[in-house]
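Data availability (excerpt). The following record was deposited with the supplementary files.
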Amino acid sequence: QVQVAESGGGLVQVGDSLRLSCAASGRMFSAYAMGWFRQAPGKEREFIAGISWNGIYTQYADSVKGRFTISRDNAKNTVNLQMNSLKTEDTAVYYCAASTLWTIHIPVVVTTREYGYWGQGTQVTVSS
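Predicted structure:
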């Protein structure tokens, strides 16, 4: 089993950058596909970025493609989300999650229900 905890959220201005980190504890971190999700007030939680167990494969939501970058360091049990060119619509609570439901053919997990381990979330507010 794995536990994850996010950090790095805060209040920034439009166009700024922010780096979120997710620290995982427990065994076999490298066995998990990892993902970042976000949930804005009144909206459903949405997938924004995912990464395979070995960090080779990544996938992004169209809304963040080209602006956000997900990465992982299995030696340090961490997953990061680098967010550039932030927009007001990026304002949300951001969640890190871990999934065992990946396959060789589908190494990145993009569906919320396929993630079994979630952090408490970190607030990101982008002000104009």
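Summary of structural features: The chain is about 0% helix and 50% strand.
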